[in-house]
Design a protein that fits this description.
GO terms for molecular function: cadmium ion sensor activity; DNA binding; DNA-binding transcription factor activity; lead ion binding. The protein is globular. Helices cover about 50% and strands about 10% of the residues. The protein is mainly alpha-helical and about 120 residues long.
């Protein structure tokens, strides 16, 4: 049995946000529930690709699938996730777009920003 810790919850959240498509999907679902076809179109990806992203987001516990007859609607698993995304957007600022952990680089003060 997996022991769920605060750090593992944050790691899952970070992993989900680490992909631009998943981030766009979460932001869209923050606004309103939606259907896979609409989300794929909004994100500019194929339905198959979106399906993989939704599987990841469900596995991370961030979204849920709500059956509606023959269709499935997706929404955030908890409205607090939308609040958390809003808060995160309000406090996160990238000072140096070249130093965002995509590559290891050095700050002006000589410290590595990503190690």
């Amino acid at each position: 049995m997996e022991i769920i810790t605060q750090s593992s919850v944050l790691a899952r959240f970070g992993y989900a946000l680490s992909d631009p498509t998943r981030s766009r999907v979460l932001l869209a679902l923050r606004e309103a529930p939606s259907y896979p076809g609409d989300l794929a179109e909004m994100a500019g990806v194929s339905k198959q690709s979106l399906s993989n992203h939704l599987t990841c987001l469900r596995g991370c516990g961030l979204v849920v699938a709500v059956p509606e007859g023959r269709r499935v609607r997706y929404e955030l698993a908890d409205r607090k996730l939308g609040d958390a995304l809003t808060s995160l957007l309000e406090v996160v600022a990238v000072r140096d777009p070249e130093c965002c952990c995509a590559t290891t680089s050095t700050h002006v003060d000589g410290m590595a920003c990503c190690s």
